Structure prediction request, 546 residues.
Amino acid sequence: MATLSNCFQPLKFSPKRHRFNSTSLFTRRCSVSATINQSKLDILLDSVKWDDKGLAVAIAQHVDTGAVLMQGFANRDALASTISSKKATFYSRSRSKLWTKGETSMNYINICDVFLDCDKDSILYLGKPDGPSCHTGSETCYYTSVFDSLHSSQAEGSKLAMTTLQSLEATILQRKAEISESSTAKPSWTRRLLLDNKLLCSKIREEADELCRTLEDSEEAPQTASEMADVLYHAMVLLSVRGVTMEEVLTVLRKRFSRSGIEEKRSRKLEGS
Amino acid sequence: MATLSNCFQPLKFSPKRHRFNSTSLFTRRCSVSATINQSKLDILLDSVKWDDKGLAVAIAQHVDTGAVLMQGFANRDALASTISSKKATFYSRSRSKLWTKGETSMNYINICDVFLDCDKDSILYLGKPDGPSCHTGSETCYYTSVFDSLHSSQAEGSKLAMTTLQSLEATILQRKAEISESSTAKPSWTRRLLLDNKLLCSKIREEADELCRTLEDSEEAPQTASEMADVLYHAMVLLSVRGVTMEEVLTVLRKRFSRSGIEEKRSRKLEGS
Prediction:
């Protein structure tokens, strides 16, 4: 019988080293299964506005980073398969058959949830990829920037589509790469931080303190946003120094918020022993 | 003549209160224009693999939060219009005409960049929405959760598709709402933090310090990820207390990294006066 992920746990407070976990909104275990009501499944599949070829657009998105990984099409069987297998499955129009991303490459997209749009003719597969989602080996299929292509002084743009946080991370990574490549790179604040752990840590503590002061001193809200931006930026430079990605951090957050109360309690006992 | 965004500025270091800005990867001004080479534009438009109806899938994504806002179709004119106007434009198949999101609602999606996928048959509009992107008033069109719909004990799921960071923010917001709704809500760590500014700030400073120690004491990388998760979570609780959203913080980050060197220097002079 088909299964799906369902995990509702109240938030727990541990007086020692608390590990927060959560409820309702955070059911993103992406692997645990529960029983599906088959008639409900049929009703859902019937409700999708399949086009004249029996297809709907299916967009796969990274649950943690938000990156749009790829876009294909799904028919009723592909959607049913996605829901039951928890692996993003599409309908290949060229080969006229179902196709599960990863069936050859092992780079599955593990489904956390599936969404339909307001018109029920577009499907969003929200999941965690096991590896690059593009057959070219790129993390996502969207790496051709139109604006870069059109800029008169550049060749066709090849730049992964990234949201603000990913762009910031990539920029910091670029500064890090420039350190080893060349000593003639232009001076930059990020470069200085990357080369001076003492300065970096001093700044992180300072910015965290300033963030707190915006609350303690009832400063204007925009000041809180500004200080939070400082905390985020400096902390991300530290992540870069340590070779840790934001994706790894977000994965930790998602898993913490998806753990059952029993597991959380058990882990506290282990931590205490 | 059509224009596009292009802003390349080296990183500046200000010994006083530095304001970092960036280069190359962060060209997300989403409004400033530059000249487009018309023949390059034609070549690009020709390179798209329009289907037998002259259409390609066009996905609009929030540049800061990563939320997939909506999905439609674009033809050659719609893509050209999007590039020149910097407003997400689609081709309405039902009305057989071009349609700019926001032309009625004023909720434009302001384009920062456009990407083509590896096969050049899928388009990603990366932009900043002026308001809700769905005609229903929802922030995005994806609010029907398939897994929630199928869960046997729940009614049809109505839950905005969210990435991990957005989900965390929403969970914290939910705890905040529960405080005013009921005093019988289950105890939770988030709730405690929301009600105790002193504890909250103490935790933020503590977690920032622990994050730094993972670098200073050369701890294992997973420990850095774990401490960063703690910093992020606690800082986001503070944001919630202050009524500040992660989107606002990310907007600050994006704008900082997009400012020209001249603007940044000018703002430092103003700050110093």
